[in-house]
């Protein structure tokens, strides 16, 4: 994707500077476009834990490079296993993180220590290339859903889409999941408009999704998280499309907190609710998402304080709750498969069921 006409991916390697990797500091967007250089596995773990880098597919890709950085320090069996465990523990909900680390280890374990560094960078690069290709395919399959809506409307009629959190290119290596079909619809000349949930408490929608859509020229409107149901009641949402951090083999979907409520509102108002994901986000070992998917509990300060830009242009954080009030901050919720219209993957669309997923991925 592009920023001010320049093409970027969300992670890239600097071969001239100790084979370090670079990412955008997502905690500074949309007010400041800062590029971070990560040179150690500790840098990578910190970036993932503090959400300087976020989005399930991108977390996996960056963690893969984190293991490559670790092997530059020590490529022994024990050091590799230890660093892999530390990276895998940084965030518990997104399955792509564990998937990427396990893929790296499967590729590296048979190799001798002196072969591992070069092989690790190559494998991490393949993970990135595959993610970008998968997301582009998701965009094409999701585009057909939007085109189907347009086909049944008078030419030029506005199509209103609603999304939650950020599932764009900044959350993946490139293209994004939920936003990829929207970008392609816009580029194809369809009159799409996006309702962007602010996505409290970290405001990934208001900060990141709105920034992405604006940079690409896609018409959009930021709304409070609780406004989506109202818009659906009044016929102002044609389709809901979200990303996900983990999907069970039975089609349950773990995504940013508040997704479940959007799915309930969509079902009550007969609005299609679609989830876009690469196959790396499917956890074939889990059948009941509500009972089995671990939900990350983040710091209470994300609830009690809000970050933003002051009138003088400085970035600041202010307290919004009374002193002494406690706060709970579950970062994700699980939307049961019965509320999901269907899943959009790189291999096509399917019902949110075990048979639907296995139909697309019979090798599983």
Automatic annotation (TrEMBL):
Residues binding substrate, per UniProt: 54-56, 91, 204, 255-256
A single BP term in Gene Ontology: L-methionine salvage from methylthioadenosine
Pfam families reported in the protein's UniProt record: IF-2B (PF01008)
Residues the UniProt record annotates as site (Transition state stabilizer): 165
Domain of life of the native organism: Bacteria
Pathway annotation from the record: Amino-acid biosynthesis; L-methionine biosynthesis via salvage pathway; L-methionine from S-methyl-5-thio-alpha-D-ribose 1-phosphate: step 1/6
GO MF entries: S-methyl-5-thioribose-1-phosphate isomerase activity
Record bears the keyword Coiled coil: no
This protein's record includes keyword Transport: no
Catalytic machinery residues: 245 (proton donor)
Similarity annotation: Belongs to the EIF-2B alpha/beta/delta subunits family. MtnA subfamily.
Name listed for the protein in its UniProt record: Methylthioribose-1-phosphate isomerase
Protein species of origin: Acetobacter senegalensis
Organism lineage: Bacteria, Pseudomonadati, Pseudomonadota, Alphaproteobacteria, Acetobacterales
């Amino acid at each position: 994707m592009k920023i001010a006409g320049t093409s970027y991916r969300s992670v890239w390697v600097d071969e001239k500077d100790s084979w370090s990797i670079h990412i955008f500091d997502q905690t500074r967007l949309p007010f400041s476009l800062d590029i971070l250089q990560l040179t150690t596995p500790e840098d990578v773990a910190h970036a993932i834990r503090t959400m300087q880098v976020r989005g399930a597919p991108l977390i996996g890709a960056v963690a893969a490079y984190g293991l490559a950085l670790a092997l530059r320090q020590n490529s022994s069996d024990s050091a590799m296993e230890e660093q892999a465990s530390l990276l895998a523990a940084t965030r518990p909900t997104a399955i792509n993180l564990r998937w990427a680390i396990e893929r790296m280890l499967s590729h590296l374990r048979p190799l001798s220590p002196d072969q591992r560094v070069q092989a690790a960078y190559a494998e991490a690069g393949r993970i990135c290339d595959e993610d970008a290709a998968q997301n582009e395919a998701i965009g094409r399959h999701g585009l057909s859903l939007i085109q189907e809506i347009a086909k049944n409307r008078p030419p030029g009629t506005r199509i209103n889409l609603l999304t939650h959190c950020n599932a764009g290119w900044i959350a993946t290596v490139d293209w994004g999941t939920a936003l990829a079909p929207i970008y392609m619809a816009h580029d194809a000349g369809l009159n799409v408009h996006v309702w962007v949930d602010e996505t409290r408490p970290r405001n990934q929608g208001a900060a990141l999704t709105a920034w992405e859509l604006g940079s690409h020229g896609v018409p959009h409107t930021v709304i409070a998280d609780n406004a989506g149901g109202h818009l659906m009641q009044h016929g102002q949402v044609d389709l809901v499309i979200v990303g996900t951090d983990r999907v069970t083999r039975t089609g349950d979907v773990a995504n940013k907190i508040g997704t479940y409520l959007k799915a309930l509102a969509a079902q009550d108002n007969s609005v299609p609710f679609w989830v876009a994901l690469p196959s790396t986000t499917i956890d074939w070992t889990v059948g009941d998402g509500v009972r089995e998917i671990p939900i990350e509990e983040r710091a209470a300060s994300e609830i009690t304080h809000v970050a933003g830009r002051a009138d003088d242009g400085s970035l600041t954080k202010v307290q919004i709750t009374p002193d002494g009030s406690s706060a709970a901050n579950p970062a994700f919720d699980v939307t049961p498969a019965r509320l999901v219209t269907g899943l959009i993957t790189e291999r096509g669309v399917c019902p949110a069921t075990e048979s639907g997923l296995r139909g697309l991925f019979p090798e599983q």
